[in-house]
Amino acid sequence: MAVIGLVLLVSTGACLPGLALVIASNSPFDHAFAAQHGADVTAVIDPSRTNPAQLAATARLPQVSAAAGPFAETTVTTELAPAPQTPGGEPLGPLTLAGRSSPGGPVDDVTLQSGHWAQQPGQIVLSSTGLAPGVTDGTRLIATGLPGKPMLTIVGIATSVTGSANGWVVPGEISVLQAPGSPGSEEMLYRFRDAANAAAASADVAAVTAALPAGAVRAAQSYLSAKAQETSNAASFAPFLVAFGVLGLMMSVLIVANVISGAVVTGYRRIGILKSIGFTPGQVSAAYVFQAMIPAAAGCIAGAVLGHLLAAVLLGKTASVYGVGTLGVPLWADAAVPLAMWCLTGIAALVPAVRAGRLSAVQAMAGGHAPRVGRGYAAHRLLGRLPLPRPVTIGLAAPSSRPARTAVTLAAVLFGATAVIFAAGLGSSLSHVVSGLSLTSTEQVQIQVPPPGSTNVVMRQGHAQSSESVSAALAAQPGTLHYAAESSEQASVPGLSQRVSVTAFTGDAAWTGYSMLAGDWYTGPGQAVVPAYFLEQTGTTVGDTVVIVFNGRQIPVRIVGEDFDTGLVMITDSRTLARAAHPLPPSWYYAELRPGTSTSAYVQALSTALGPAYQVSTNNDTRGLPVVIGLISILTLLLAIVAGLGVLNTVVLQTRERTRDLGVFKAIGMTPRQVIAMVVCSVAVTGLAAGVVAVPVGVALHQYVLPRMAAAAGTELPASFLNVYRAPELAILALSGVVIAVIGALLPAGWAARTSTASALHAE
Amino acid sequence: MDAVIELSKVTKGYGSGSRPAVNLVSLHISPGEAVAVMGPSGSGKSTLLNLIAGLDRPDSGTVTVAGNRVDTMSETAAARFRRRDVGFIFQFFNLLDDLTVLDNVLLPAQLAGLPRAQARARAAELLAALRIEQHRDAYPGRLSGGERQRVAIARALVNRPALLLADEPTGALDTRTGDEIGGLLLDLNRSGQTLVLVTHNPELAARYASRMVAMMDGLIASDTGGEARGGSPAPVQ
Fold first, then answer.
1. Same domain, A507 and A433
2. CA torsion sign, A647 to A653 to A656 to A658?
3. In terms of CB atoms within 10 Å, which of A114, A487, A572, B56 comes out highest?
4. What is the model's pLDDT at position A717?
5. Would the ipTM clear 0.85, i.e. be above it?
6. Partner-chain contact A380 B108, CB within 8 Å
7. pTM of the full structure
8. Residue A763 touches chain B, beta carbons under 8 Å
9. A377 and A365: one domain?
């Protein structure tokens, strides 16, 4: 009975996170928005045009369901302060800071990811959105452009689902961080009774604007823009999280059915005794079902607690991947999963209990827990002829005596091995995706050109050089293999509301290695390469000509290729835009290094050559890959553990059923090591078979899920990103089933080896 | 004569507070003896047999069988000892239902790593000697009780053990079949096989054993007949 409780604990504990992942993958933004009381509208207020009483009155407008603020805000330009490991000076760009005394409130309940809320001047909590690499609790920032260059220490990282600010400080700090002479600004956060679409949100903003003096509302941003951005990100990860969730659910159900029915079968003899002392078939069946249900109830409750805690950890990671700050387990799931598992226990117990109830008392006692007579005999006979140690062949033949249980065990290991194979491919494909997007293998070194009017201290002190000088410095480096200048511009396409980000290269940029899905790289001005999302939004295909509007000039551009990228972007030669703006100021230079060149030495040499005005760095943009890989690893490990527990349960049942045989084996001289070998071999073939079957299943799941992830992100995947499995790799992955089975069997095999021979011989 | 079994002040109990199942028992059995250990249920005779076979460990005292200190052996050493030096016959045969008669008999030899041909020759010899060679490919479930016990005897002898232990070997058989099996054990003993037989049946003991050790409440109440078979005088508790 303890086994039943344990199995239900583990299965419920695994099932709940599985369901939570499936739920979280359905509209994660909406869930996070509801959980964090996200602001439907963030209104920027001019405090000189209104007063706190008028602002407070807007909270009572019929359209408004909740309001928070006013929070004083300001925008500061910051850079990293020098630290023991870093020289500092790296710009973090302009940050919009709000003064808030606490993260909570009726609107925009900011979720702390780490650290604590700002409690005194000089402390800042940064938004996790767009956090620069290496910036963490304890990092210090310098607010440049302000008298005295005030220092801020990061004491926490937090998420606002609606992105109400880039950072938060104590309210009194805003006045310190405000540039002298700049106008004050405040933000009001509103939740409205109806803000389901842009029209409703606009009407709500109009109502607030009308309720305040003219000019008081400087700007207003609806949550819909944040939602559009986050949903595209979240949707791309949903397919793989759903895949893991479903695998977990199915495994849990299988294991419960297997163990409960097995536990009832092992109790046949007891059922026979009950019948012999006068229990009716119905009473016997009911007694046995309830006997299974009581420890199952305890297991389900404990499993729900365990699962909730586990789900909280997983959802924390998932929220990070989705970029929604926080995700929680719905209360109904906390209740439904243990209840469903308990009902499943009842069903799984009922079938063998009813069957046992129909047996005569003598049949039940005699048939007992032994496998059906004759089953598996042929396997024993055939395998006994193999030139293998006898304990091994006896173990290998064992699955044939319980084909149904073997099938269920095979299915559990199959799911676990499928998860491993799928995860391996997913990790590999995502690495390709990240590499394809960040171009780390080609654009190894990046040089940031100081923007005009830069407030960065170090940049200001340096002297920006002409693009010819930068090119000359790059060409002069012996390690330079290729280099190109990139200008980042914004253009529009008639008929599209969204702006198009145009990446315009000066010089040959074919070496940058953008992954092409169709067509070719551009060969001259007037040609462009765009991703699938651009084609979809503009209704064009490769070979078509699209007109873009840049600096008020219409420029026809022929689409010559489709590349792997996301968003409404275009890559072209800088001469394409030259008719509208000449010369285009480069914002970045990229360099590919000759093989064998030390990247760090190259970066140092180039930095010296260009001077402090240029930020030369290694391109190590991982685009959050470690977080995603971490989540995949945790999920895979969890599923493999659940599969291993499925095996453990099977082996426990198996050894329990054959305790007497075990005693005989030991009595006639089977050593503990031979017992372990026999028990482990009893599931090894099942594990191997499951692993072999899992190879095509895992690959198929990968081939099914990845394109859907890409489609959700508005792109397609190059074949090379999908065809990541190599034959030797697959051969190793096929062994994952054996590994799961062997690890799952080792513990009960050890128990079997340690069982007292004398007591095993007397087992019934 | 050297003892094949030497127990010295052996005590074994199950659970604190209760009377030991075997209490300070000393016993000396010489090679070739046929000893019947007798006593009512709960007298400690099966525990004594388990201790001799290395299936259980004494709480105190020493157990030496065929020159091996069984009480201090590791589990692995005990398993090797059982397969090499001891043949065990159970009341309810304890054959493995999913193995054929031949495979059941072969199993201890295979566990001991005996070459396949040699093991098969030995098994065939035993099956013929015990007149069950016609059932070599049958499964135990299809055999009569007497035939099953013959298979169990063949299995117990396949590794030519120094000692044959039998726990109520006729207890699950009808009288005629029991007599057959008893006669078989007697024949084995006459051919030099040391035999320790546990039974609660005095008639069976008198017929097939030359020495009778009676147990009562974990103690040896009497030990008779040892001298007649040339065994050493047995110390009596």
1. no
2. negative
3. A572
4. 83
5. yes
6. no
7. 0.72
8. no
9. no
